[in-house]
Amino acid sequence: MVRRKLVVGNWKMNGSLAANSALLADLSAGLMSEKIDCDIAVCVPAPYLAQCQAALSGSALAWGAQDVSIHASGAYTGEIAATMLCDFGCRYVIVGHSERRAYHAETSQLVAQKTVAALQVGLTPIVCVGETLAEREAGRTDVVVGQQLDAVLALLDASDVAKIVVAYEPVWAIGTGKTATPQMAQDVHAALRLRLAAKDAGAAPMISILYGGSMKPDNAAELMAMVDIDGGLIGGAALKAADFLAIAAAA
Ligand code: PEP
Question: Considering only CA atoms, which of 118, 26, 121 is closest in space to residue 68?
C-alpha cells in the first residue's frame, strides 16, 4: 500500500499578521518552485485561520487548527466548535497534542471525543500520541501510546477509522532537539499500525502515521524513509519557510 506522504506544520502559539503574511507568501512561492510531492498543511492559532483562508485558498498548502471543542455550540466560553473551523476552510485539526495533555489536563477520553467532533463535520483529525522519557525508560512506550490510541478507536464508527491521521510524538523529543532514531520511531509506528489493524484490518494500511519531535531538514529524509513513517508533524522547523519546505521536499 503506497500512502502519500503528509507534512504538517504546527505553529503552536506563534505568529502575527505580519509574520504570517511573509511566511505564507514564502511557503506558497516555494511550493510552486520546489519539487514537492506530498500533501502539506499548516495548523495555525485560531485567530489566523481567516488569514490562511484569504492567503491560501486555491493553493496546494492546506490549513487547520490546533484544537477543537467537543461541543457543537453553547455556553462554553473560549471554546471553538468544529463547524467554526469549517467556516474558515480548515481541512485538519490537531487533537491530543502532548502540550494540551500536559498543560490543559486533556485525557485520552477527551481526545477521543474531540476526534469524533472533528470527523462529524468532515475535518481530518491528527490524533497525537506519545510517551514521556520516564515512560520510555520504564519500557512502557507501546503500552502508553497503545492506550492513547485505543481510547480514540473505541469511540469511532467503523466507517471513520480510515479517516484519521495519527501522529507519534515522543514527548521527550518535542522542541528539545532530541529525535527518535528512525528505527525507534519505526518500531512504534509499526506497533501503532498493528493496533489500528486490530480495530480495522482494512483501514490500517490506509492510515497515515506521522512522526513528530524535532524533525528538521537534516533528519527528515531518513525518518520518512521508514516503511511506516508517512510524514511529519513539525513544530519549530515549520516557522522557517526554507526548513519546512526542505522537510516537505524530503518526504
Ligand atoms: C510539535 O510540537 O508537534 C513538534 C513536533 O515540535 P518540534 O518539531 O519543535 O519538536
Answer: 118
